[in-house]
Amino acid sequence: MRIINRIVLALAAVLIVATPAHAAPALDDTSARTIDELLAVRAASGGLHRGELINRLSARLLGTPYGANMLIGSATQPEQLVVDLRRVDCFTFLDYIEAASRSTDREEFVTELVATRYTDRRVEFTHRKHFFTDWARTERVAATDVTATLSAAARTTTKHLNAKADGTTYLPGLPVVDRAITHIPSAAVDGAVVAGLRTGDFVGAYTPAAGLDVTHVGILVHTTAGPVLRNASSLDAYRVVDTPLLDYTRTVPGLVVLRPH
């Protein structure tokens, strides 16, 4: 069962580096070193296509241990800016790669992380991008939803994000947002769909569950051995791994694809 990383509230027992929302976080040695390595990859990227840049940056995090619920904040607990690359969940993995792809130094990395993770650059629980499709719908828009363009079999469902089937909410203190979610059913993910995917695309595992858009996310990478989903796995691997895309697709209801800007 995949953990819905942004929907489960962060636990106090999780070991993270965090500071009050108004302050830049102090970095542990591992995180500081990893950020510097990511920035070096970007500096050496030259005129690479953005998708290939995302590939090279995310490859640096292969093997990084998985950690569940890495963020802190709720309706009753102040939001804290977390920068911890010692462990990542599937969403913070994407956050860090997106921020690194836009940064040239540590200070800029933190600034870009805030812009990636929060609407209006406000480090507040109510402004955190809790849902995958927020990346294509809320400021700063980081990607375009291209799911419908990849297959004639794509289906669109109106979801009431944050609303459970029993009438309660996943995240108390946040509104319910009506949103049309398009996904490609797993049975329709064929060679033509794979050919339409680009290295660097952000891919989510669609869920039919009420109130949610996806249950897991990763980065699509075309390799010589075939397409893989580079993701922070909460299964047996418990680290960032490359999972064969078609093998993974057979285990989920469908895919949602966002293309980075």
UniProtKB/TrEMBL annotation:
Keywords: Signal. It comes from the Bacteria. The keyword Signal applies. The keyword Signal applies. Residues 1-23 form the signal peptide. This is N-acetylmuramoyl-L-alanine amidase-like domain-containing protein. It comes from Nocardia halotolerans. The lineage of its organism: Bacteria, Bacillati, Actinomycetota, Actinomycetes, Mycobacteriales.
